[in-house]
Design a protein that fits this description.
The protein is α/β, with parallel strands linked by helices and 150 residues long. The protein has helices at 44-55, 57-62, 75-84, 98-102, 144-149, and strands at residues 14-16, 22-24, 32-37, 65-71, 91-93, 106-111, 114-119, 122-126, 132-136. 26% of the residues lie in helices and 29% in strands. It has a five-stranded mixed beta sheet with strand order 5-4-3-8-9. A two-stranded antiparallel ribbon has the order 1-2.
C-alpha cells in the first residue's frame, strides 16, 4: 500500500481533470498542494469529504494551498460531481490509475466481508518544493480540512 512517507519527493504526475485540462506536479511549484484520493465520485462518504474541502476552500487559499481531488472515475462523472456539489477545485479523472499507482494508494480493501482492489482514501500534503509534508491515511471525511489545516 502507501509507501510514500513524510519527507519523500512527491511523484511527478500528469492527468486530465473533469474538463480535459492537464495538471502536473510542476504546475503547483511554489504553492502547497493537497492531493486527496477518494474511491468514487457521488458516493456518500466521498461527497461528505469533498464538500468539507469545498466549505473550507477559502481557508486553504488563504494559506497558499491548491487542492486536487483524484479518483479513477471518467471525466464526465467527475464533471457531474464537481457541478452537482459546486466544488471549486479540479477533480482528476485518473482512469488509467497512473496517478493513483504513482502515489501508492491502489490495493486490496475489505468492505462488508468482501475483498477487492480499490483506491484507499488517502491525502498527501505537498510543500512548495514538491516534498511530502504529510500523509493522511486515517481520513475523517466530516472534518478532513481540520486534519490538514490543524
Amino acid at each position: 500500500m502507501t509507501t510514500l512517507q513524510k519527507g519523500d519527493k512527491a511523484p511527478q504526475f500528469s492527468a486530465k481533470d473533469q474538463d480535459g485540462v492537464t495538471h502536473s506536479l510542476a504546475d503547483y511549484k511554489g504553492k502547497k498542494l493537497v492531493v486527496f484520493f477518494y474511491p468514487k465520485a457521488n458516493t456518500p462518504t466521498c461527497t461528505v469529504e469533498a464538500c468539507n474541502m469545498r466549505d473550507n476552500f477559502e481557508r486553504f487559499k488563504s494559506k497558499n494551498y491548491a487542492l486536487l481531488g483524484v479518483s479513477a472515475d471518467k471525466a464526465k462523472a467527475q464533471a457531474n460531481f464537481k457541478k452537482k456539489f459546486d466544488l471549486p477545485f479540479p477533480l482528476l479523472a485518473d482512469e488509467d490509475k497512473s496517478v493513483i499507482e504513482a502515489f501508492g494508494v491502489w490495493g486490496p480493501k475489505k468492505f462488508m466481508g468482501r475483498e477487492f482492489d480499490g483506491i484507499h482514501r488517502t491525502t498527501f500534503v505537498i510543500d512548495e518544493k514538491g516534498i511530502i509534508e504529510e500523509v493522511i491515511s486515517d481520513v475523517k471525511s466530516k472534518i478532513h480540512s481540520d486534519q490538514i489545516l490543524k
